[in-house]
Each structure stands twice: as structure tokens, then as C-alpha cells.
Write a structure and sequence with these properties.
Blueprint lengths: L5 E12 L2 E12 L3 E5 L6 H8 L7 E6 L12 E4 L11 H11 L4 H14 L15 H12 L6 E5 L7 H14 L4 E6 L2 H7 L2 E6 L2 E7 H7 L3 E7 L3 H11 L6 E7 L2 E6 L2 H15 L3 E8 L2 H9 L2
Parallel strand pairs: 3-7, 3-8, 5-6, 6-7
Antiparallel strand pairs: 1-2, 1-4, 8-9, 10-12, 10-13, 11-12
Helix pairs in contact: 2-3, 2-4, 4-5
Bound molecules: adenosine-5'-triphosphate.
């Protein structure tokens, strides 16, 4: 069901290559003025999904409805798209590239030129507008890529891994820009970097082997998965190592998941009080020399790891 505040609705979206299904019956809705992160490990189907949304790849089955209008056959009119590996002409200036992108979207030269000027200023490239793209830094190129995707004032901006090829400075520049853009445009972007998703997005979608395994507002996904976490670190002696091994084998009641971490272990537990009591008693009984005991909540990274685990 499309609601008034929805920009795009995807139903049973599927992509098959011969016998291999790479996106399987995916359903989600993007709402107006919200920023959504599409998360998933390598090969989960993020790029395939994005290319279908951008109209570059034909779905095997399923429906993509844009702005409640199934009759608009060319989604490129309402969608701005930045591919994972954009191809720039190094010899063009940023301004020339923007006008070129605008002309490809059907803008007149005058309209493209006006929009180019405004957007280049918006992404902090006004001073570099007449310089060749070949001399731009990674962050500048990516900001130009985002600007060209906005040239026809799309309702939805789709970015495939916009931060993955950038150094920390470039990443910070692009994050700041997206934070600004998401105030007035609906944004969907794919990423491996969970920290970036947490810092920027309102909603998340997690794909695993082509299937959507988690979706919704970040706060709801967090609440749904809210579980206490206990981190224990010990001295590196034989007794402590043996004791930890027994906890890692996962036979203890109340422990949902136990992972080895540097110098210790990390337990996701059902009932914090019960688990803490059992743990402390066991530490005392076994004479384990702990160096750290930390109590917290599952992060988005834990939720992601849980969602994509086999
Ligand atoms: N043209 C194709 N023919 C056959 N299989 C394909 C084709 N394109 C993609 N795939 C497969 O589809 C799966 C999903 O690929 P996709 O690029 O969408 O994943 P991704 O989540 O974007 O991964 P990454 O994070 O590595 O970019 C992969 O297993 C890939 O090998």
C-alpha cells in the first residue's frame, strides 16, 4: 500500500540469473524525506537491487512503484543515481560535466547551466568548477557525482556505496553533504560501513543472500534487537583461558551468543541480572583474574552480524 508520504514502493522484487536468484522477493517502502541505508555483506544483492530501482536492470519479477505512478515508464525522471564506480571524463571541468549530465536528463543548456552553478556551490565545488576533474581529490569527485545526480531535482537520490572508496577526509566531506541533502530529498544509499549508516540514516534495510532480513526505522530495529552485552577480559593464564573456553562453548543458560574478542569474550545475554550473577559467581569460584568487565547494549554492528549470520 502506498501512503501519501511514500516515494517508492517495492513488492516481491526478484532478480534471477539462470538458476541463481540474487534478489529474492524483496519488499520495502521508502518514505518522503527519510534517509535509508541498504546494508549487507559482499554479494548480498545491494548493487543489483539499486540498479533495478534506477531502471538500469530489468527485474525478473516483482514491482517497483514510484510516487504512486506505475505508468511513468522512465524512473530516471524522478530518480538521481550515483553508481558505485562513476565514470568521469578527466579532461572536462566540473561545470562542463554538470551541464553534460543535465543535458542527458533533458534539461535545456540554460537550465542545466543554472542548476550546475547552484549545485556546484551547494557541494562546495564553486571554486573548483572550472578546473579539470582529473585534478580533483576522491572526495571532490564523489561530491561532483552527487551533484550530477541532483541536476534534474529528483525526488529520490540513490547512491551505491558512496563512501567506500574514500579516505577519512573524503568520507567526512561526503557525510556532511549527505546530512545536508537528506533534509530536502529522500535518499537511499548502500554501504558496508555500519558506522556511517548509524550516523546518517533514519531507516535501514539489511540484505542477506538476496533476501531482506531486517528493515525499518533504525530506532525500532535497535529496540527490537535490544539485548544486553557483557564483555569480560582476563589475564592470559591457563586457568583463565580454560574458564573462558567453557563460556565460549555456549552451554551456559541465558547466553544467546558468545564470541571471542581480543583479550577476552563478548556475551550477548537474555537476562542481564541472571547472567551477571552467574558470571561473577563463576569468576570467583574458578579464581579467574579478570582485567575488565563491561556492560552495554547491542550495537548496529551486532544486529548486522546477527542478521547476516548463516
Ligand atoms: N550478470 C550477472 N550474472 C550472474 N550473477 C550475477 C550477475 N551480476 C551479479 N551477480 C551475482 O549476484 C550476487 C549479488 O551481487 P551484487 O553486486 O548485487 O551484490 P552486492 O551486495 O552489491 O555486493 P558488493 O558489496 O560486493 O558490491 C553476487 O553473487 C553476484 O555474483
Amino acid at each position: 500500500m502506498m501512503r501519501g508520504g511514500d516515494v517508492l514502493n517495492v513488492t516481491a522484487l526478484t532478480k534471477r540469473y539462470d538458476a541463481k536468484t540474487v534478489v529474492e522477493s524483496v519488499n520495502f517502502t521508502l518514505s518522503k524525506m527519510r534517509c535509508t541505508a541498504l546494508l549487507g555483506p559482499n554479494g548480498a544483492g545491494k548493487t543489483t537491487t539499486i540498479q533495478m530501482l534506477a531502471g538500469l536492470l530489468r527485474p525478473s519479477s516483482g514491482q517497483i512503484r514510484l510516487l504512486g505512478d506505475a505508468s511513468d515508464s522512465d524512473p530516471r525522471r524522478s530518480i538521481g543515481y550515483l553508481p558505485q564506480h562513476p565514470a568521469f571524463y578527466a579532461w572536462m571541468s566540473g561545470r562542463e560535466y554538470m551541464i553534460y549530465a543535465g543535458r542527458l536528463c533533458g534539461l535545456t543548456r540554460k537550465a542545466a547551466s543554472g542548476a550546475a552553478e547552484e549545485l556546484l556551490a551547494r557541494v562546495g565545488l564553486a571554486d573548483a568548477a572550472r578546473e579539470r576533474i582529473g585534478g580533483y581529490s576522491g572526495g571532490m569527485k564523489q561530491r561532483l557525482g552527487i551533484a550530477q545526480a541532483l541536476i534534474h531535482r529528483p525526488k529520490l537520490l540513490i547512491l551505491d556505496e558512496p563512501m567506500s572508496a574514500l579516505d577519512p577526509i573524503g568520507r567526512r566531506e561526503v557525510m556532511a553533504l549527505l546530512r545536508d541533502i537528506k533534509r530536502e530529498t529522500t535518499v537511499l544509499y548502500s554501504t558496508h560501513v555500519l558506522h556511517d549508516a548509524e550516523a546518517l540514516c533514519d531507516d535501514i534495510l539489511i540484505l542477506r543472500q538476496g533476501e531482506l532480513v531486517e528493515s525499518g526505522p533504525l530506532s525500532e530495529v535497535r529496540d527490537r534487537n535490544r539485548q544486553p552485552v557483557i564483555v569480560v577480559e582476563t589475564e592470559n593464564d591457563e586457568a583463565s583461558r580454560g574458564w573462558m573456553e567453557r563460556w565460549l562453548q555456549g552451554t551456559k543458560a541465558d547466553v544467546l551468543n558468545a564470541d571471542r574478542v581480543e583479550r577476552g569474550m563478548r556475551l550477548v545475554v537474555r537476562d542481564l541480572e541472571a547472567a551477571r550473577e552467574a558470571l561473577l559467581l563463576d569468576i570467583a569460584r574458578a579464581g579467574v583474574r579478570i582485567t575488565r568487565l563491561d556492560i552495554g547494549q547491542m550495537s548496529l554492528e551486532d544486529i548486522f552480524m546477527k542478521a547476516v549470520a548463516e
